[in-house]
Amino acid sequence: MGQGRVRRTASRPVEALALVAIAAVVLLGFVSAAAAGQLRQGLDPGAGLPQVLLQPLLSGGLLLVFHIFLRLTGLRSEQVIWPVVSLLFVIGLMMIYRLRGEAGVWQQMTRGFIPGLVIAGVLVARPQLIETIRRLAVPAGIAGLLLPLLTALFGVVDETGARLALKIGPLPSIQTTELIKLALIIFLAWYIEREGRAAEARAHTLLIWMRLPALQYFVPGVLVVTLATLALVPMSDYGAVLILGAIFIAMLYTGFETRLFFTIAAIGLALAALVGVVLAFTWEVPAVIQYRFLAFRDPWSTDMILVNGQPTGITIAEGPGYQIQQAVYAVIAGGITGTGLGFGTPGYIPLAHSDFILAAIIEEMGAATGLALLALFAVLLMRIFRIVFLLPPGQVFERLLLVGIGVHFFTQVFVMAGGTLNLIPMTGVTIPFVSLGGTALLVNLVEIGIALAIVRRMEGYRT
Questions:
Q1: Mean pLDDT in residue range 215-233
Q2: Which residues of 5-32 are buried (b: 16+ CB within 10 A; e: fewer)?
Q3: Does 274 map to a domain?
């Protein structure tokens, strides 16, 4: 393909107006939270407010800077994705400030937001890097297998008892499960694009309707089952297992002919069931997973928690159920409109800044804000899948990348919201762009950068 660049600055008025309003929201939110904190201590609400302005002004300014950058790259379409991501981010940032103060905000900015924004910007500025991502698919798959092993050997145990992060020397810890998911998306997109048509051509009819591909086409299924087992056994992260499974099924459905999809999915499920049977007889389920299932069954239970068959003197309600109880109480206390930012008691919820930030948001900003937040994710997913439908037929790799990214977002939100409301067992999955977490936020912003880079290529950028 020839070289070509869009030289004119693009006009993005809808995005600009939305971002100005969002910047005002984050400034007002920080000021309101700081004033409420002063009032609760019986102090002058206006005292110290100038010192509060730096972080919201910086975050709002960075949102607008990225908008200007998108204009300079010549990106003309898709003026919804960045405002939606920005609004999700500032809602989370306001609650992080409320729960963790300035230190939590700086952590969110420096470990996740700013690095993620830089990488996303590089991807949009040089959309030909999508081809580089394609060429790195095999190393990405290998890295996806090595990361859980390294985490199992050298990882650090977090406050929930799970081993999810890898820490090297004085550097901040890296949550490897987020990198594993992105690596899987890249590998599956490359593999299905490369082998999809060949698999359909070489498949053999099985049971009249279903079609059985050759042995080498089961590599994705074996990879996913292996990754899921590694994530579950040494890392105690069954939330990652749910997300990996959802990504696998969605990308297979998108990339393979229907009869092949059902055959490969059935064999993948059979492999997973076989691994499950083996684990049932050889693996002792970690305490953190056992406790989460006990808390899901009845968080108010007065049954004693047993360790090695011996009672600990702590009931389920006093131990793992306490977190869910407080989340439910917070949702009830918030009602429709909330107690007001800074006037609730979300600090009673363990890990309110990460796993249970939705409950904290509902308590102080109301169920209306909680529903609006979920609606924002629905809009984000629709915009991503809109790009999928607009892609030319030949861009299979790009289509599969976007499907994997969209399903990654959807599954995270579904699992997180279900765990918060105790509809499913709590998994420790955070909410994208909102929860405190450096690596997760960085990976999510990289995924947005990939989506916008693909849009720019669609508009005629030639690589």
A1: 67
A2: ebeeebebeebbebbeebbebbbebbbb
A3: yes
